Amino acid sequence: MKFLNLIILSLFLNASLSKAQNSGLSKELANKITSSVDNDTERLITVFKDLHQNPELGFGETRTAGIVAKELQSLGYEVKTGIGKTGVVGIMKNGEGPVVLYRADMDALNVDEKNGLNYASKVKVKMEDGSEAPVMHACGHDAHTVWLLSLAKTMAAFKDSWSGTLVLLAQPAEELAAGATAMVEDGLYTKYNVPKPDYALGLHTMPFATGTVVGSGGVLEAGTELLDVTFYGVGGHGSSPQWTKDPILMAAYAITQYQAVIARAMDPRDMGVITVGAFHAGINNNVIPEEATLKLNFRFFSEAVHEQLFNGVKNISEGIARTYGMPEDKMPKIVRKGHTPPLINDVETMNRVNASLKSSGVVNEKTLVEKFPAITGSEDFPSLYEGMEGVKAVYNFIGVADPDVFAKARAEGKDLPYANHQPGFVVDLKAIPVGAKVASVMAMELLRKVN
């Protein structure tokens, strides 16, 4: 009987502890956070517009990085710069507790902005080939950066409410699927002594109605890899193909045969995508060139499928080259340019964060989406903690489309009013404080002092 009583007592204590840990932020603290963001919204929007008008491409985010570093220093963070070229980290140690890493990406895209905003980007940059190209924040990384700055201010203001270590990381080159890896390989956790995280947090804009927050546990986004495949041949006159070995023909056959990996080699229950986004070969109409390059992109939900996609592309490419008589030293060259694993949210931690988002009033039952199907879009966010044991990730989508614009699109039978990476992409200014509040509640929930 004593043993049974001990079991009952243990269950009671565990249940009480679980309830205490999951009770969320106090109403008083939640109100302080939301009021603080509301009072700072005008400044945040000004910073957002400035960043939007001054976009920078991956690994060239010097101005943006400077703004982040200056702000973090003014708030008392230990700041480290130049990580992975332009990455910035701010560290605030505030007693014993977990290490929470919050990441925001800073880079923009080669997109010509066409949305009618009076603060639209007019920036153009010179590319490697000497051409001039437009630059736009068409994926909301300007908003992501502002949300990090807001979080930095909130957590510094309410240090007496939390305990642990907060790491704020402004990352370059997410669009290249290379920035997170660059920071890690540059010694993020070694040379720069950034504490390894227990929790990794992040947010991303999506063209859902403003106020909508997607907080879904499990697989959220696909893994990706960018790679180039170069076929070599024997060039010559277009009138005499019999004296050449045409790399354009080899590459053309490869494009169609790659899809057989998806259609006939993979288990139909698995997800895999092989996209050929560019085909570069030759200059003249009547010259067969020496080489042809394909630019590929993979998407996958598991590393097993990732390996299958790569091996399939490699075997097909080499098989075609051999079929057309190329020697072993002229087999296609594959350059692997960037890779990130699938983004998987920790279910228990997501539930805990969602509970605080609801209790704080930042979201409600209608605006919080807790079950969301995994998408084939990708993020290099997981590369920041790939291979580390026990890191729990929470990555949420934030709606940034004006609700009226979103409702009109839905009434017209469209899924969304516009998409990320499009010239018409817009971040509704009313979404700036929403993301800022979500970021602060997420971090505070995981670092808050438990009475």
Structure description:
The chain is of the alpha/beta class. It folds into 2 domains: 25-217 and 346-447, Zn peptidases (Aminopeptidase); 226-340, Alpha-Beta Plaits. It has helices spanning 2-21, 27-53, 62-74, 141-157, 179-185, 247-265, 303-323, 347-359, 403-411, 431-447, and strands at 78-83, 87-94, 99-105, 124-126, 132-134, 164-171, 199-209, 213-214, 218-232, 236-237, 272-281, 287-288, 291-300, 333-340, 343-345, 368-369, 375-378, 392-401. GO terms for molecular function: hydrolase activity; metal ion binding. Pfam families: M20_dimer, Peptidase_M20.
Characteristic terms for this protein:
8-stranded mixed β-sheet, Hippurate hydrolase, Alpha-Beta Plaits, alpha/beta, disordered N terminus, manganese, 451 residues, 10 helices, 6-stranded mixed β-sheet, 2 domains, Aminopeptidase, hydrolase activity, Peptidase_M20
How is the secondary structure organized here?
Elements lengths: L1 H20 L5 H27 L8 H13 L3 E6 L3 E8 L4 E7 L18 E3 L5 E3 L6 H17 L6 E8 L7 H7 L13 E11 L3 E2 L3 E15 L3 E2 L9 H19 L6 E10 L5 E2 L2 E10 L2 H21 L9 E8 L2 E3 L1 H13 L8 E2 L5 E4 L13 E10 L1 H9 L19 H17 L4
Parallel strand pairs: 3-6, 3-7, 7-18, 8-16, 9-17
Antiparallel strand pairs: 1-2, 2-6, 4-5, 8-18, 9-13, 9-14, 9-15, 10-12, 11-13
Helix pairs in contact: 2-4, 2-10, 4-10, 6-7, 8-10
